[in-house]
Amino acid sequence: MVEPVAKIRSYRIEDEKQVRFVIAKAAMEGLASANMKTILNPLSLSLWVLLTGLLIQFMGWWPKSGDGILAYISLMLPFGSAAVPVILFSDWNNRWYFDDLSQHVLRGPDMVNLQEYYSKSPASGLWILEFAGRLVGIIALDASPLEKIGSNQKVHDTAILRHIYVDEQYRSTGIQKDLIDYALQNAFTASNSAVTQVKASSSPLRDYVRKALDETGFKYEGVSENIGLFRWKMSNRVLTKDEWKKKMTLDAK
Question: From CA 78, how far away is CA 172, in angstroms rounded?
């Protein structure tokens, strides 16, 4: 039996529908994490317990002496019911950001024609992570380098990592770091590449991406915005070509 293998390859036109779906999924995946963090916050848990107590008091469901253990087990019903408004409140307050983010991503300039956009620069690229012939991850590096100024063109030296995503069941392998390493290798070593630094963003709501960026050598540059009900910090990250070379040298030893 042939063992399934993982490989990273370039985007092809026939990947378009699946890649667009994964890009939208990546934009929305922080919502589940935001809701969970909101619900498990001590303030939310305290509100949950308070609502449970008020519901039991209002309905007169407090067990009486001699009712037996079943009376106490029945309190699970109001306990679960009181969780509903907490969950709805969390989702209602967090969802708007991710809905806006999803619309912004799906209307981005690269989404008009993925293949054409990521072919503008030798350093740019959109890559697919496959395992056993199935798409399990993607990454894009936007080094769109040319900006017309009159009759001249200005070459940008900064590239941006976009659309980093790996299916949840494969994240424990750390393969997301391999994806980032692959994109960086292309950014800094491609022929005619003028890229001297690569930027990316991270958040505690997509922790596997943040950890992979840290392991790859990206440095914290500052907070770009606060998101969600509890104002989680979106961070800007940067890795220069010189720092990348130093890390590659150290890793090779």
Answer: 37
Instruction: Return the axis-axis angle of helices 42-59 and 30-39, rounded to nearest 10°.
Output: 60
DSSP 41: S
**Which among 105, 128, 146 is the end of a domain?**
105
Per DSSP, 231 falls in state T
Tell how strand 158-166 and strand 197-202 pair up.
parallel
What's the domain count of the chain? 2
What distance in Å separates the CA atoms of residue 100 and residue 106, rounded to the nearest whole number? Answer: 10
For residues 159 and 124, the answer to whether their CB atoms sit within 8 Å is yes
pTM of the entire predicted model: 0.83
Note down the domain range covering 54. 33-105
Distance CA 43, CA 27 (A): 27
Model confidence over 182-216: pLDDT tens digits?
A: 999 999 988 777 889 999 999 999 999 999 999 99
Buried b (16+ CB within 10 A) or exposed e, 160-199: bbbbbbbeeebbeeebbbbbbbbbbebbbebeebbbebbe
Residues 173 and 218 in one domain: yes
The tens digit of pLDDT for each residue in 215-240 reads: 999 999 999 888 888 889 999 999 99
Same domain, 186 and 207: yes
Is the Cβ–Cβ distance between 183 and 149 less than 8 Å? no
Query: In this structure, are 98 and 119 located in the same domain?
Result: no
CA angle 247/6/13 to nearest 5° reads 100
**Which residue type occupies 76?**
M
